Amino acid sequence: MNIGIFTDTYFPQVSGVSTSIRVLKEELERRGHKVIIFTTTDPKATALEHNIVRLGSIPLFSFKERRIAVNGWGKAYKAAKEHNLDIIHTQTEFGLGLLGRVVANMLKIPTVHTYHTMYEKYLHYIANGKVLKPAHVAYISKSFCNQTSGVIAPSQMTKDTLLRYGVLQEIRVIPTGVEIPEQDISGAQQLRYELGYTKDEFVLLSLSRVSQEKNIAAVIAAMPEIIATNDNVRLCIVGDGPERKVLEQQTRDLNLEDYIQFTGEIDPKQVYRYYQMADLYVNASESESQGLTYLEALVNRVPVIAKYNDYLNGLLTDTCLGVLCHSDEELASTILEYMNYTIDTELAEQLRASLISEISVATFADRVLDLYNSAIAGYNWHLQHEQNKLTPKYILKSIEKIKDEIHD
C-alpha cells in the first residue's frame, strides 16, 4: 500500500505528534508498505531525507516552534501522483491537513484522520484566546472529521469529545504505539551520575514540551513543600519550549536552583534513559488527549503522578502504576505520600505486560491498517455507487424497487 501522511509537525520538531507519526511510518515500512511524509520545511532539517516532501513554510505567529506551509501545493500534488498513493492520512485539521484533503479529492482516493490535539486547551496561543472560542473549535473539528473516511481518536476521552462536537463519521479509538525499550540499569545509573544525582536522592522527572499548557509551573511550585519534608528530592525538567525562561525565573525566585535542573531538548533516541534514571514521573498538564509521555513512563517502569482525567483514570488501574490528584494544591502531598508507598513489583509487571500488549507498535499498526483497508473499500464502493447512478440500468432498477415497495 502507498500511504501519504500530511502533517504540519514532524521531526526535527519534537512532539507527541511527531513521535506518533515516526513510529507508525517505521512499522508500516517494516511491513513492506511505502509511506510518504508531507510536511513543512524546517531550518534544522538539513540532511537528505528519504520519502519526506517538505513544503515552504513560516513560523506560526505566537507558536514559533511550529510552522505552517505557505507554498508548494503543486509540488505536493505532483509527488502524491508520482507515488501513486492509495490513501492519505491527515494529522492536523489545518495547513497540511487541508492540503491532504484537497490532494485526495483530486486523486480520487480516501482520507483518514487522526485527531491529536484538544484545542480548547491551546486557545491562549491565538490572540490570548480572544479570537477563537471553544464553539469555533467544535465547528472546525466537526466539519473536518465529517469529510473523511474514518477518524482515529488516541483515547476514549478524545472520541467522547468528538462525539460531543457532533462528529458523525466512524471514530476508532487507537492508542499511539509506544516503542518498548530494554531495561538498562547500568545506563540509567550512568545518566544519574552525569546529571549529578546521588543514589540517595529521589528524582522527579518532568519530560515534555516546556509550554504553558503543560503546567510545569505547578510542579515547581510544589517543590518547597516537598523539600520541607524530604530534602533529598530533586526535579529534572527535560525538554524545551517557550515557557522555559519563565520557569527558570520561577525556580530562582523560589531559591530552588540546587533542587531543580533544566536539561533542554534531548535526542529522542535517549528519552528512555531519562525515564529509567528517574524515581517518579510527574505531569500536571490538563491538555493531554493521549498522554504519550505517561505511556512511555509506564513501559520504562516509572510510576506516574498526574492530574485526574477519565483517560488516565482508566490507564492507572492500580496504585503500583501511579496515582492521580485533582488539583495543583494536592501535588506535593500526593508525591510525598507516594514516596512512602511500597510498590507490589509483581503486580506492576503483570499490569505493565497487559498495557504493553495494548499499546505496542505492532498493535498500533495492525489497527491503523485495518482502518485504511476499510476506508479504501468503503470509498471505492461509494465511487462505484455514485457512478452507477448515472446509468440507465441503475435508474430502471431504482424504479422497479420503488414499484415493489409501493406494491408491498
Automatic annotation (TrEMBL):
Q: Where is the signal peptide?
A: none
Where in this chain does the record put each Glycosyltransferase subfamily 4-like N-terminal domain? Answer: 14-179
Q: Supply the InterPro entries for this chain.
A: Glyco_trans_1, Glyco_trans_4-like_N, Glycosyltransferase_grp1
Q: Which residues form the Glycosyl transferase family domain?
A: 194-342
CDD domains assigned to the protein according to its UniProt record, in alphabetical order: GT4_UGDG-like
Question: What's in the keyword line of the UniProt record?
Answer: Transferase
Record-level Gene Ontology MF annotations? hexosyltransferase activity
Q: Does the UniProt entry include the keyword Cell membrane? A: no
Pfam families associated with the record: Glyco_transf_4, Glycos_transf_1
Database matches in PANTHER family: SULFOQUINOVOSYL TRANSFERASE SQD2
Protein name, please?
1,2-diacylglycerol 3-alpha-glucosyltransferase
What organism is recorded for this protein? Granulicatella balaenopterae
